[in-house]
Every structure is written in structure tokens, then in C-alpha cells.
């Protein structure tokens, strides 16, 4: 077949875009460094979304709700829910790691995404941060809450967002390995290797001089301009299906072009000087506590240096059978079986203990934020942290997600209670997303299937 004049050399295109792909994955945003610089003395408003796979232990009844006729029973010591009745928090054994953080934490019972109801327990994790309805109205996953915020304010920091997961990559439908999505059909690969994450954040030039990086970026920009210009000459000659495919490809090219432009501008700002003492970037995956805490530490470092203000962390995907995480409960508790088995068998000697261990790791992160002074409070005061899962244990139900909210005390949130949204009080989980986005100065009225905000959590 003769080569047409408008045929593109794919090898040349990929080679040309190589450096842009190798740099941190950033949103297509214009960068206003002067504005970013003017904001350095203001208290940043941050958001972090964390996910724990395979649900949590809720022995109260189906979907973790107290069964009818058993309302007089005492609350289990080992239940993900810290106490039985809505109101002021008290803490059982599962939730005890958060006891000293009472003024910073809230539990919310009865929330979920309608878009996940028909997906099944091990698939609904795909939409935890998006609320998309992929079984009904949407063909692919939609934008995640962190990326809505990144699109609005990500230009104020070197990196618009940080996307982490203990398995890395994007996964696939029904077994996503990332919480973050740019929009329809565009998952953002999660990073899972501590040394690589650190290098992306604090050594993105890989030992090259700034002038060398700028020259390379200039070459990348020229090649991308050429690709876009060539596309205009033949786009009208393509069929409808090919035009759609080409438009998707060009969207990616434009996105890379913006990243090149953004990265070039940020080369004029010095990188933060980070002391890595006490940070084991070579930690093995078979060391669960040290590995997970290292991931949390990297988010903390990204926040404390104001390298980004939005982060996601997926601790296991819902399909971890090919990952070392599959055995974490064995490493931590000595459980004779895969971590996933706990969700099915509910062994009384391990289920609550597994939740407590996961709570200890998350509390470690929250305490680091709380113990770091910032402005008129601390970092946790200015950071909203959503943490939870997409189904309770054993039932594999996609109703009543275990939802834990922390921080943001100086952003308008009030804490210290268990809230319940059942029966006539039922509202979508997306209502919480609206309140979180508004708290970080993203003035949205709707997100996914929301029908309002969550005023119960806000200070009057």
C-alpha cells in the first residue's frame, strides 16, 4: 500500500513525545506562575481520597445495618462503625486508632453511589471517586472528584494532582487500579513504586540541567505542533468512525502539548529540597506497614511542599490476586488465606483486627497532618480527607459504603459524630462530594447524581 503524504510516522511521534510522557502526569491546564507565587503565603486548601478494598467488617446485619428486632443489642467491639447510634462518637476496638482524633473525624452511614448498585461489590470500587453510572447512562467512567478540583486550581502548584495506588496502572472495567479519571473513558494510571514517585515529585529532571530540559521540551512542543497541523490537512477525508478515533488521539496530543508548556514554565521555579532521612524508598511490598506508610509519607511530602493539593490513594484494588497485596492479611495477622477471603468468610478472629490495622495506617497519616503547624491551625485543618470502601464485608452489597471523613476544620467542616442517612433521610454520597469541592473553593452545585450538599457536616 502506497504511503499517503499525510501518513504520520508513529515511531517519530512516540519518540518525540517520549520526554513529555516520562514527566509527571499533569492536567491540561494553563499555568499562571505569577498567581501561584502570590498564593504561597495563603493556607492551601487540599483534598485527599483514600480507598480500602474488599469492604469492612459490619456484623450488625445485611449491608452493615442493625437487623430489625435486634436494636436492643449492644454494639460489637469489632465493627467498622465506631458506635451504634447516630450522635457523638464513641470508639470500639476497630475504630480506636481514631480516638485521639475525635475532633477531626466523622463517620457517615447509609451513603453510596446509585451508579454502583448494579456493578457488584468487587466492581463498584471503579466508581468510588466518580459516582458514574456505567451500567445505565454512561458508557465509560467519568471524571473523579480530585480531577474536578485539579481542573479548577491545579495550575497553582507544580503538579495538578498525585495519583497513587498499591498496584499501579489503570486496571480495567470492573477491576480498576486507580481512583482518578480525567473524564469519560480516561483513567489516570496510579503510581505504586515509592522511589519512582519520589523522583517524579522531587527529581523530575533525572539529573539533567534545567537548560537541557527546556531545550528538550521545546523540541517536544515543535513535534506536537507538527502533529496537530498535519491532522488538519486530512481530518475531513476520514470517515465518521475514523474521525472520532482521530479526535480522541488528538485530545491526547493536545493534553501532552499542555503538559509540555506547563512543565517548561515550572522549570523557572526551584524544586523543593527534601530530606529523605527516615524514608525508605526501597521498601519491599512484603512489608505492609512500612510500604503503606511510605505511600502516605509521599502524599504528606507532596502536601507539605505544596507540590500538589489533590491526591488519591487506592490501597489494593478489588481484584488483587496477582498482587502482593493479596497476602497482606497473612503478613500482618498470620491469617491462613488471601486477604480477599476475609471479606467472604468473616472469621471473627481476623475481620475486625484487619480493619483496625488499616485504621492504624490511616490514623498515622492524619496525625502527621495534625501535628504539622500551618497558619492559624495545622495541615489537617486545611485538608479534607475522604476514606472508605464501596461495600461492606461478606454481603458484597453495594449499599451503605463505609465512609470516614476527616479534617477541613478550618474549611467549614465540623466533626466528632456518626451521621446516619437511612430511610427518609437517604441522600446520595455525591452530596458529600459537592460539599468537599465547595470547601476547597470549587463552586459546584452538582456532582454525579447529587441533589444538594451535606449541610449536616458544615459549621453554621
Description:
With 460 residues, this protein is α/β, with parallel strands linked by helices. Helices cover 32% and strands 10% of the residues. The chain has eleven helices and twelve strands. The strands form three sheets. It has an eight-stranded mixed sheet with strand order 2-12-3-11-10-1-7-4, with helices on both faces. A two-stranded antiparallel ribbon has the order 5-6. Strands 8-9 form a two-stranded antiparallel ribbon. Strand 8 (373-374) and strand 9 (377-378) form a beta hairpin. Helix 1 crosses helix 5 (210-234) and helix 7 (288-304) packs parallel to helix 10. The longest helix is centred in the middle third of the chain and has 27 residues, at 240-266. The N and C termini lie far apart (71 Å).
Span of the ends, CA to CA: 71 Å
- The 3D shape can be described as globular
Order of helices and strands: HHEEEHEEEHHHHEHHHEEEEEH
- Provide the helix percentage: 25-40%
**Portion in beta strands:** 5-15%
DSSP helix count?
11
Question: What does the radius of gyration come to?
Answer: 23 Å
* Largest beta-sheet details: 8 strands, mixed
Unreliable stretches covering 5 or more consecutive residues: 1-40
- What's the rounded overall pLDDT mean? 83
Helix-strand category: alpha/beta
The main sheet orders its strands as 2-12-3-11-10-1-7-4
- By DSSP, the count of extended strands is 12
Amino acid at each position: 500500500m502506497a504511503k499517503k503524504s499525510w501518513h504520520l510516522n508513529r515511531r517519530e511521534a512516540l519518540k518525540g513525545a517520549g520526554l513529555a510522557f516520562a514527566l509527571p502526569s499533569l492536567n491540561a491546564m494553563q499555568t499562571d506562575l505569577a498567581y501561584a507565587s502570590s498564593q504561597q503565603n495563603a493556607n492551601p486548601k487540599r483534598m485527599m481520597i483514600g480507598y480500602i478494598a474488599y469492604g469492612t467488617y459490619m456484623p450488625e446485619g445485611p449491608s452493615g445495618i442493625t437487623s430489625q428486632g435486634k436494636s436492643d443489642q449492644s454494639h460489637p467491639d469489632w465493627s467498622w462503625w465506631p458506635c451504634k447510634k447516630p450522635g457523638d462518637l464513641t470508639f470500639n476496638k476497630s475504630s480506636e486508632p481514631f480516638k485521639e482524633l475525635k475532633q477531626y473525624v466523622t463517620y457517615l452511614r447509609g451513603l453510596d453511589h446509585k451508579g454502583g448498585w448494579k456493578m457488584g461489590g468487587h466492581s463498584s470500587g471503579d466508581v468510588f471517586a466518580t459516582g458514574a453510572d456505567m451500567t445505565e447512562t454512561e458508557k465509560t467512567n467519568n471524571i473523579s472528584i480530585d480531577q474536578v478540583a485539579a481542573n479548577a486550581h491545579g495550575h497553582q502548584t507544580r503538579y495538578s494532582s498525585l495519583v497513587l495506588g498499591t498496584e499501579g496502572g489503570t486496571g480495567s472495567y470492573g477491576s480498576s487500579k486507580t481512583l482518578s479519571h480525567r473524564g469519560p473513558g480516561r483513567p489516570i494510571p496510579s503510581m505504586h513504586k515509592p522511589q519512582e514517585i519520589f523522583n517524579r515529585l522531587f527529581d523530575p529532571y533525572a539529573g539533567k540541567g534545567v537548560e537541557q530540559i527546556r531545550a528538550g521540551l521545546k523540541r517536544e512542543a515543535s513535534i506536537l505542533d507538527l502533529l496537530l497541523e498535519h491532522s488538519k490537512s486530512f481530518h475531513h477525508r476520514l470517515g465518521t468512525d475514523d474521525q472520532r478515533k482521530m479526535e480522541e488521539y488528538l485530545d491526547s496530543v493536545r493534553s501532552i502539548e499542555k503538559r509540555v508548556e506547563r512543565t517548561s514554565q515550572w522549570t523557572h521555579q526551584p524544586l523543593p529540597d527534601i530530606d529523605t532521612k527516615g524514608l525508605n524508598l526501597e521498601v519491599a511490598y512484603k512489608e505492609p506497614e512500612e510500604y503503606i506508610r511510605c505511600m502516605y509519607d509521599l502524599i504528606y511530602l507532596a502536601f507539605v511542599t505544596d507540590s500538589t493539593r489533590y491526591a488519591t490513594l487506592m490501597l489494593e484494588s478489588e481484584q488483587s490476586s496477582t498482587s502482593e497485596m493479596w497476602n497482606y492479611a497473612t503478613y500482618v495477622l498470620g491469617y491462613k488465606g488471601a486477604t480477599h477471603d476475609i471479606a467472604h468468610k468473616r472469621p471473627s478472629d481476623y475481620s475486625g483486627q484487619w480493619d483496625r490495622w488499616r485504621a492504624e495506617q490511616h490514623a498515622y497519616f492524619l496525625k502527621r497532618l495534625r501535628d504539622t503547624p500551618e497558619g492559624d491551625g495545622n495541615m489537617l485543618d486545611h485538608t479534607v480527607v475522604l476514606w472508605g470502601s464501596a461495600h461492606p464485608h461478606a454481603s458484597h452489597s453495594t449499599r451503605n459504603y463505609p465512609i470516614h471523613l476527616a479534617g477541613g476544620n478550618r474549611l467549614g467542616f465540623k466533626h466528632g459524630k456518626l451521621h446516619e442517612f437511612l430511610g427518609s433521610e437517604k441522600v446520595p454520597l455525591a452530596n458529600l462530594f459537592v460539599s468537599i469541592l465547595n470547601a476547597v473553593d470549587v463552586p459546584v452545585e452538582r456532582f454525579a447524581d447529587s441533589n444538594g450538599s451535606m449541610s449536616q457536616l458544615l459549621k453554621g
